[in-house]
Each structure stands twice: as C-alpha cells, then as structure tokens.
Design a protein that fits this description.
Layout lengths: L1 E4 L5 H7 L21 E6 L6 E19 H7 L4 E16 L7 E9 L5 H5 L4 H10 E3 L3 E4 L6 E6 L15 H10 L3 E6 L10 H10 L1 H5 L2 E4 L9 H7 L5 E5 L2 E5 L8 H12 L5 E5 L16 H14 L3 E4 L5 E6 L2 E6 L17 E5 L2 E9 L4 E11 L6 E17 L3 E5 L6 E4 L2 E7 L3 E10 L3 E8 L4 E3 L2 E4 L6 E8 L7 E12 L5 E13 L10 H41 L1
Parallel strand pairs: 8-9, 9-10, 12-13, 13-14, 14-16, 23-30
Antiparallel strand pairs: 1-4, 2-3, 3-4, 3-5, 5-6, 5-7, 8-18, 11-12, 15-16, 15-17, 18-19, 19-20, 20-21, 22-24, 24-28, 25-27, 25-29, 26-28, 29-30
Length: 581
C-alpha cells in the first residue's frame, strides 16, 4: 500500500527529520546519509506532473519518500510532502503525483525494516514523526530531479555501458562517463540507448550498473531504450516499469523511443510513428539501439531494417535528430536531411571504425568514451559530444582521462530536420579520420586517403607539423558539399633522419575568405623503416625516370606551396593588426 501525506507533517517535524543522526533501530544503518541501497535511488517515468522514485535493498524493506520543490526546500530547510510505501519488498517504485511542470524537486528516501510496523508510523503526529523515523529507519542521501514542461532545457544521451570481463568492469569504464554526466548542470533527463549490462538476466550485472552510475541516477531522470543485451528480459521490464516503445514530451519537444531488436514488430512501430508524428511539434527526437548508418568494421553500413521501415516516415515528418547506440563509437551522419548520432560510448569495449565511412558521414571518433549533451531552446538545438576518456586500441587500458567538458564538436540543428552544421559563421570544414598511423620505407612513400567535408568551395593547404616528412599534394581544390569527399595523399620518407616512430600532425588549412582560415590537425604516427631501397630500380634509366618525375612534381606544387606560405603570412599579418588594435 502506498500512502500520500501532506500537511499532516508539520514544518517543525520536517526540519527536525533533516538534522539529527539516526539511533539504531532496524539495524539498517546508524546515521543519516550513510545508507546506500543496493540500487538507487534512481528516477524514472518523469512527466510534467509526476515522477517515480525507485530503489532496491538486499532484503525486504518498506519506505517513505519525502520531497519538496527546490524553492520550498531552500526556504524552509525541509520537505513538504511524503509518500509511504508500506509493502515489505526489495524493489520499490514509488510514484509522486500532482507535481508542478518544469520545476526542480529535492527528495530523500527513508528505509525501514520489515520488523517495524507501518501502522506504527501512521500513528505518529507532529514532531513525533521525525523522532520515530530517526529511531526506526535510515535515510539515503538527498537527490534531485526536474519535471518536464520547459521549452528550454538540456538532456544527455549515451549508451552501451556493459562490462567486458575479465578486462574491465563498469566501475572501471562506465563510472568515468556517469560521473561526468553527474557534474553537468541543469540536466532535465538522461536517455540511455540500451545495453545497460552484458546479460540482463544476471542480476549481478545490474548491481554493477547501479553502483557505477549511483551519483548520476540519484539526480537525473533516466529514460531507457532496450538493446540486444537486454534480451527482452523481464528483469529489464521490472527495473524500469516502462513499455519498450513509448513517447514523452517536454514543452515544444517530442521524444519517441523505438525497439530495433530481432523480436520487435517494425511494421507496427511504423504505424505508431506515423500516428505520433501526425501532430505538429517544433522539435522531434527519436531514439533506438541499432544505428541506421555506421562505419563499424563488424557492421559496416548500419542496420537496414530501421532505414527501410522508418526512414521515409522520419524524413517526411522533419524529425530533428535520431540517436542510437550499439556501435561503441561516436559517429554523426546526415542523410536525406536527417541527422543521425551514434553514441554507444558509455563504457563497453570500443569498436573499430573502417577507414572509409558510408555516404553521409559528417564526423566520427573511435576509442573514446563520452556522451552527447543536447541543449534545446526556442530557436535551435545544439548537440555536443563530450569526451570522457581515451582507450587503447586493444581496449585493455584507459590511456587518458579528459578534463570535464572536453568538447569534440558542437552541431546546431534547426526545426524540421534542418541544420547539421557546426557552430561556425564560416561553415563546416571537417577531416576524417581524426588520427592516422602510417608506415613508410626509407627512400619510399606511402599513399593514404582522408575524407574532407567543406560546406563551401575552398582551397585547402596541406602540411605536416612536428614530422620530418613531406606530404603531397600541398594544395587541394574542394567543391562545397554536405557529403565527405575522398582525397588521396602521399607521404614521403626522409632518409636524413633515423628509422623509427615519429608522432606529429598533418594539418589542413581551409581558406574561408575575408582573412579567415579554418584549420584541422590530424594526429599522425609515422613509422619509418629501412626495408625499402632508396631507388625503386637498379638501373640508371630507372633512376633518371624517377628524378625527372620528382622534378615535375616539385614544379607542379611549387606554386601551391608558395601560395600557402603567402597565405599564412597574410593571416598572421591580419592577426597581428587586430592585436595592435
């Protein structure tokens, strides 16, 4: 039985309940703030006027949830309302009702053992309530959440937090991401894109999930998306108490959650989508687990089912963005005017991405943990990918933990599926991949490809930084397009330096006009070996042919190289002039 209490608790009693330490009663704990349930507290099913506070204990317990608006809590130092869940059980899901839209709330949970009678609590009045709870129960740390309904808000998207034993646990990887999300300010909610744990039927895996994300879950509503590792498990359904296909709204934004697993009914979801999207909305966001587009080496191209069943519906409705996981990397695509974000970067073993990305690829980043931060206001949506940590190629080690708030890119989106360009008045200029590893023989060269996206016609200058090698060509002419264009480059060895590994960058400087340059630096590791001969042929004729070829190449690129140096000098001069002003 769940009992809602309001004015029956006096302000004096409520304030007292928040101060004194707990006396031993049920043996659950001895002091306020010391209790950490097995799971949670965690927040689900938040709407404009309601929310659910959930927690799980090792044995049967019952509990009391106290809550108040942030304003009331700050003004009076206590909680105005309480809900009692009097049934002794392990997993509790307590509904809070009649809340105010777009409002911040504070809450805490009192845990009481089965040997304490709920009717004894109901018999208390006034200040006796506080004393009774202190003597017979224990309380969790206070948490907070925000109801839906505001037109301007921020939400977080990430997924694929499963452990990969014996190499790492959720405490090793997922906790890095969840703790950064917990530091984000004024977050309305978090969407998890699925694959919470390796095996949804294994309760021990859920223990690890809730422990790793404890701080984040206590202060942010979680909206779940079912993934393949959930395996249609009743444990998943019990934990969240939500359907696998559902919707919710906040202000002018609509959110639609779909199921892309093998057991899903795609045709029925298509009809549901058409019905839901028939009503007007300023912003529409769609979430599902398997990405429609991806450069993952194991699943190159993405999942065809979501494209064939749903893409026409989403494009016609002008959906703002689609978010998916499953591929453990960050990827961004723009296809048929529809923005796709892959954010399976929550802690699972990170994926390898192919050298060539499918058409529509805008940006991508492998071997990096992180999450997407989405900010919505009246005029635009901004999606930023926040980097948390860099992981080794073999997935065994965390090589670097980035400072909080490290942004890979920020992309602005417009209503009706428009936008998809970074926040830059000069337009978009991107180069992928974001890192290169090249081997070159002494006296030889190595050809390689990059993909360049330039939203306008532009001249691009290519050079090396901190590398004793030359790259050709040094000048590229790019046609403006939303699609990435493949470019072949060639790196030449340097026989005057010792063989070995060199680390530096290949730089791409885009002339955006009006003394503005857009630059990209691609981290590059080059290993020069002595296995190749300096000249490809042993005869004089071969050597002469190569010499003539080198002279021709040098002459052809001399103009571009000189133009590049002059352009850099012009940019530096303009910068100095602005500084003098």
């Amino acid at each position: 039985m769940t009992l809602r209490l309001g004015a029956a608790l006096t302000w004096a009693a409520l304030i007292t309940m928040g101060l004194a330490g707990l006396a031993p009663g049920t043996g659950v704990a001895a002091r306020a703030g010391d209790v950490a349930p097995l799971w949670g507290p965690y927040i689900t099913r938040t709407t404009e006027t309601g929310a659910a506070i959930n927690w799980k204990t090792e044995g049967p317990t019952w509990g009391v949830v106290q809550y108040a608006t942030e304003e009331q809590y700050t003004l009076h130092g206590g909680f105005e309302n309480s809900v009692v869940d009097s049934e002794a059980r392990q997993l509790h899901q307590v509904s809070l009702e009649d809340l105010e839209p777009a409002e911040a709330y504070r809450y805490r949970v009192w845990i009481l053992g089965p040997d304490v009678r709920p009717d004894a609590f109901a018999a208390q009045a006034g200040s006796d309530v506080a004393l009774w709870l202190q003597r017979n129960g224990s309380t969790t740390r206070e948490g907070g959440f925000r109801t839906l309904g505001g037109d301007a808000f921020t939400f977080i998207v990430y997924g694929d937090t499963q452990e990969q034993t014996p190499w790492f646990t959720q405490m090793d990887r997922h906790k890095l991401v969840a703790d950064y999300i917990a530091q984000e300010e004024d977050v309305a909610f978090v969407v998890h894109l699925g694959d919470f744990t390796y095996d949804a039927d294994d309760v021990a895996g859920w223990d690890a999930f809730f422990e790793a994300a404890r701080e984040m879950l206590a202060n942010n509503t979680l909206y779940p998306v079912i993934g393949n590792h959930e395996n249609n498990s009743p444990v998943y359904d019990e934990i969240f108490g939500m359907p696998q296909v559902y919707r919710f709204r906040s202000g002018a934004a609509r959110f639609l959650v779909l199921d892309t697993n093998s057991w899903a009914d795609y045709e029925a979801q298509k009809r549901w989508l058409q019905d839901e999207l028939s009503a007007p909305s300023q912003w529409d966001f769609v979430f599902y687990h398997h990405p429609a587009y991806s450069s993952d080496t194991r699943n190159y191209g993405g999942w065809e089912l979501s494209r064939s069943y749903w893409e026409d519906v989403l494009v016609e409705a002008g959906v703002t963005a689609v978010f998916s996981g499953h591929v453990h990397a960050y990827e961004r695509y723009r296809v048929r005017g529809l923005n796709h974000f892959v954010v399976g970067t929550g802690g699972g073993a990170l994926a390898d991405l192919s050298a060539e990305a499918p058409a529509g690829s805008q940006n991508r980043l492998a071997k990096t943990l992180g999450y997407a931060r989405v900010t919505v206001d009246h005029e635009r949506v901004v999606v930023s990918f926040i980097k948390a940590a860099r992981v080794s190629d073999d997935n065994r080690q965390v090589l670097e933990v980035y400072p909080f708030g490290s942004v890979l890119e920020s992309v602005t989106l417009e209503p009706g599926g428009g936008g998809g360009l970074p926040l830059s008045p000069e337009g978009e200029f991107r180069v992928s991949p974001v890192s290169l590893r090249l081997d070159v023989d002494r006296g030889g060269s190595r050809r390689f490809n990059v993909r360049i996206t330039s939203s306008r016609d532009a001249q691009v200058y290519v050079d090396t930084e901190d590398l004793p090698f030359d790259v050709q060509p040094t000048t590229l002419q790019m046609r403006g397009s939303e699609q990435a264009q493949r470019v072949e480059l060639e790196l030449f060895s340097d026989g005057t330096v010792p063989d070995g590994e060199y680390q530096g960058k290949i730089t791409f400087l885009c002339d955006a006009g009006t003394h503005v340059a857009l630059g990209v630096k691609v981290g590059t590791t080059v290993t020069q070996t002595g296995q190749g001969a300096r000249w490809p042929g042993s005869g004089l004729t071969d050597n002469l042919v190569l010499i003539v070829a080198v002279v021709v190449v040098a002459a052809a690129n001399a103009g571009g190289y000189v133009a590049y140096r002059k352009y850099k000098a012009r940019i530096d001069g303009a910068k100095d002039a602005r500084e003098d002003e």
